[in-house]
Amino acid sequence: MKTILSTLALVTAATAFGCDNPFGYSYLTETIKPGRTEIVQWVTGRFGRDMGSGYDARYRGFDLKTEYEIGLSANEQLSFYFNNRYLDNGVREGLRFDGIQVAYMRMLANPDKAAWGQAIYIEPGYSQTSSKDGAIRDEYSLELKYLVQHNFGASQENVYAANLIAEVERKPATGADAVKLKLTQGLAWELNKHWIAGVEVVAEAEWAELNDFEYAAVLAGPCVRYQRENGFFATFTVLGQVMGSPADKGNLNVSEKSPYEARLRCGIEF
User: Is 234's pLDDT higher than 80?
Assistant: First the structure.
């Protein structure tokens, strides 16, 4: 009887979350099943950066990312990202092709079977459009993530996730290097079989040439996910900057980092 109940608990947990990520910025540790694919459209909006004064200082930026994800094995997946970027500021306005990324993810521990799920994520990429001012330049990057996940609750229907991220960027034309460190955390509760709601926090910092500090910021806000049995889902996250350094507007940094961000992810698995 105990074995049967344990099995049912695992099945319930897998049904509750599985790869159903309720977060906009944090990744879960579970990989998509082998032979399955997922197509996801990302739209990330950035608002409110201070670029001077008057109407020409306005800033609105939108990152448009199309993701194609495929399961390679029971604990491996591969993702391809195709990116465009729309900017509206005092200098440039319009949609531009940005670049591509390829990501490999390997699950080290399954959160449905272990207390803490673990995974590694490796993503090389290329970008040609600056998110800060829309300038065209070549930039190559390598992003490494260590992911953890803990399911909890009576039927493990709730989830905590954290991502430790290191990213190196290089612009060949100028030889400029940048290093970014990020920590994302998310906590979510399953409301019913269609809705999951929670909160996310993102802390990040950047250095130029490994030792020249650029900025640091902490953003936090709510997230929600809607999902259907046919594999369709949509997640929406809104983040507001809580603090930034060096502060240039109250306790915020609005010259290097937008004070508000919103991310919508819509996709289907088949």
Answer: yes
